[in-house]
Amino acid sequence: xxxxxxxxxxxxxxxxxxxxxxxxxxxxxxxxxxxxxxxxxxxxxxxxxxxxxxxxxxxxxxxxxxxxxxxxxxxxxxxxxxxxxxxxxxxxxxxxxxxxxxxxxxxxxxxxxxxxxxxxxxxxxxxxxxxxxxxxxxxxxxxxxxxxxxxxxxxxxxxxxxxxxxxxxxxxxxxxxxxxxxxxxxxxxxxxxxxxxxxxxxxxxxxxxxx
Length: 211
Fold this sequence. Notes:
This protein is of the alpha/beta class. The chain contains 6 helices and 10 strands.
């Protein structure tokens, strides 16, 4: 497991909860010490509805890149549910220092709170909120080399009503770039290190839901 931990911080770079959050700091363990890998502004202020909390949490996940561990002074229940369904390791901590970061990693390695080891890798998109789905194709094809991207996604795209599908992959599958799907899908991409974050939505969505 890569040693990267995202921590909720305030304007003074001090540990806070998701209510007081003004930015995230991602720490990475390199050369026997913790260093800041990434820092970005983020806040849940002004969020009122449960759906807004879910949407905001999904936006946060996309900004975390390949970091799958989150530490905070306290975690809102809805935020926890979205992160947990996306297989994040979530910790509530009382202080922010190297010793605490070491303890988090040690707990994971000792299987006290490891949500990744031994967990089944989804073989099809998983719904993280109403009409919003997610699938890590890189992890899927590493765990199940026999499952192609077409096998994992085609039935879903053809038969499942959805608002948005978020993918982590190394490249856009060639079969998605055909006229068949260009006519009915909107595909946007952005790079995240060596990975590609892909968001897919329908041009004429058949998904309807009352919020």
